[in-house]
């Protein structure tokens, strides 16, 4: 049932040493999404408890890192990282260097933008998996979209297009383009994926579609 989470978990594993903060938020997204899918059957609960354990371990390793203790800082970190991947892939595409790393960078960027949908206060619980009761339910508020006020600002140093002011609606549209691209890649439709990611990149760097 958690097959849809494998891409985010693979991204988390790939970034364990490269960027632990990115790894943390990918796992957090997988846990929260997994709880929405199924938090009651024994196999799914075992999987989720293992994820909670991994998140607690990461939190201890990162200590007082602001990107973990402050959700807005963490979201901005992940978003800026995703935009850097966008720019790398887009530059490669414009230069005619069409290769596997370019495609993967586009796709990873779309996966990372998914993690920005983690609701405020949804960080891993303080309890270890062994302390989580097996009959613990999931409240209706466990999985919600973040309020528009919580969308972090983009680091303007990531691009050189002057003073581009983006609205919350711009971020929402950009995330939709990335979702469409992610779906296209699952069907190996590279052209559609690249087109949607280019639309997102144009919107984020110019404020226009």
Mean pLDDT: 75
Task: Report the major sheet.
Answer: none
- Given as residue ranges, the uncertain stretches (5+ residues, pLDDT < 50) are 119-161
Q: Give the CATH H-level superfamily.
A: Vacuolar protein sorting-associated protein vta1
**Can you tell me the number of structural domains?**
1
- How many individual β-strands? 0
Structural class: mainly alpha
Tell me roughly what share of residues is in helical segments.
55-70%
Strand content: under 5%
Radius of gyration: 17 Å
- The SSE order reads HHHHHHHH
Give the number of helices.
Answer: 8
What is the CATH architecture annotation?
A: Alpha Horseshoe
CATH T-level topology:
Serine Threonine Protein Phosphatase 5, Tetratricopeptide repeat
How far is the first residue's CA from the last residue's CA? 36 Å
Apparent shape: globular
Name of the CATH first level: Mainly Alpha
Organism: Hymenochirus curtipes
Keywords: Cytoplasm, Endosome, Membrane, Protein transport, Transport
Domain Vta1 C-terminal: 168-205
Pfam families: Vta1 (PF04652), Vta1_C (PF18097)
In short:
The chain is about 60% helix and about 0% strand. By secondary structure, it is mainly α.
Structure report:
The termini are far apart. This protein has 209 residues and is mainly α. The chain has a single domain, classed as Vacuolar protein sorting-associated protein vta1 (Serine Threonine Protein Phosphatase 5, Tetratricopeptide repeat, Alpha Horseshoe). α7 packs antiparallel against α8. Keywords: Cytoplasm, Endosome, Membrane, Protein transport, Transport.
């Amino acid at each position: 049932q958690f097959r849809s989470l494998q891409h985010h978990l693979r991204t988390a594993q790939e970034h364990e040493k490269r960027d632990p903060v990115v790894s943390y938020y990918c796992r957090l997204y997988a846990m929260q999404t997994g709880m929405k899918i199924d938090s009651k059957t024994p196999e799914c609960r075992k999987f989720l408890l293992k994820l909670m354990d991994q998140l607690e371990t990461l939190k201890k390793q990162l200590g007082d890192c602001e990107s973990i203790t402050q959700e807005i800082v963490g979201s901005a970190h992940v978003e800026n990282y995703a935009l850097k991947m966008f720019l790398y892939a887009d530059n490669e595409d414009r230069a005619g260097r069409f290769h596997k790393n370019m495609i993967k960078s586009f796709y990873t960027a779309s996966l990372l933008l998914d993690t920005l949908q983690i609701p405020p206060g949804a960080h891993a619980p303080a309890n270890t998996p062994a302390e989580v009761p097996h009959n613990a339910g999931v409240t209706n508020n466990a999985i919600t979209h973040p309020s528009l006020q919580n969308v972090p600002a983009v680091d303007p140093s990531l691009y050189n297009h002057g003073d581009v002011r983006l609205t919350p609606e711009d971020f929402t549209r950009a995330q939709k383009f990335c979702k469409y691209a992610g779906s296209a890649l699952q069907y190996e439709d590279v052209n559609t994926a690249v087109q949607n990611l280019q639309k997102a990149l144009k919107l984020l760097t110019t404020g226009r579609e």
